[in-house]
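Let's inspect a concrete specimen:
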Amino acid sequence: MLKRALAVSILALTAAMPAHADAISDAMAEVQKYAGEKTTWDGPTSGPTAAAGKKIVVLAADMKNGGILGVTNGIQEAAAKIGWEVTVLDGAGSVQSRAGAFGQALALKPDGIIINGFDAVEQQAALKQACDAGIPMVSWHAGPVIGPDPANCLFANVSTDAMEVSAAAGKWAFADAGGKPGVVIFTDSTYAIAIAKADKIKETIEKLGGTVLEYVDTPIADTSSRMPTLTTSLLQKYGASWTHALAINDIYFDFMGPSLAAAGVPGDGAPKAVAAGDGSESAYQRIRSGQYQAVTVAEPLNLQGWQLIDELNRAVSKVEWSGYTSPLHVVTKANINADGGDKNIFDPGNGYRDQYAKIWGK
C-alpha cells in the first residue's frame, strides 16, 4: 500500500510540474511582448494644425518625482515646437502646495492647464473653477481612466494602460521567482490610479499562485523619510521569504538601497525591486549597475509630454481627443540600452516628434 501511495504521489507531482513550468514560461512570454524595441508609430497621423500663441500652465505634483519631471520635459520640448509659452508650477509633494499652485494658475488666466501627476479628485473645487472659466484641461495620471474624463472636466487623461503595466510587473516577479514569489507591494491611497495598480499587481500574483506577504500603503511624498526604516522592519519580519518588492512607482526604490546594504543584501540579491511605472532616470541607473532594482515597467514620459500638448491643441481647436494610448516598456539589464535607454529614459525610436510636428504644420 505504501509503495502504491508513493507511486501515486510521484505521478501526481510529475503531472503537476509541466503545468507549473508552463505557467512560468507563459508569464515570461507575456512580459517579453513589452520588452522589444518600439520602432513603429501607432499614434495619430491627423489632427488640427497648431493654434497660435497659446499660454499654458503645467501643474506638477512634485518635480522631485522622476516620472513627473520626465513628462514636464516632454511638454516643454513639444511646446517649443508648436510655439506656445509654458509656465511650470511645482506642487512640491503636498496637497496644500498643489492647491496653492492651482490658485496661481487660475490667476494667470491661461489658455490651457495640464494636470501633471496628481489625482483630479484631490483638487476638484479648483478644477470646477477652471471648468467654469472655460479653461481646457488635459492631464497625466489624474485617474485610472485613459481619455476623456467629463466628470472632472478633463478633455483627456494621458497614460499607458496602467493595468497592463501592473500585470507585466507581477508576471515578471512570478517567473523570476520560479513560480514562488513572496512579494511586498507599495502603494499610495492618495491616488486612485495607485490603488488600482497595486490591486492589479496583487490580483496577478495571487492568481498565478504567488504570495503577497504585505500590502503597504505609504505616501509617495514621504518615501525619503519612511522607506529606510520600513525596509529594515520588513526584512526583519519576512527574511528570505521576501523575494520581490513591487511598487507603483520607482520613487519607492530611491530610498531602499542603504537599508538593504546595511542588512548585507547584495545589489542583485533579494528582495528584487520591480516598479510598475514610471521609468525614472534613477531606476535606469540602478538596473544598469545591478543595484537593488531589476525591472521598471517604463512609460514613454517624453512622448507623453508631446501627446499632452497635442491633446490640448485638439481641445482648444474643439475637436475630439486623439484616442491614443502610449506604449509601455519592460526594462531589464538585458535591454536597458534600447529605445533611449542609453540616456536613462524610455524614448521610443518611432519618430513621434516628426509625426506630431507634421500634424501641427510645424
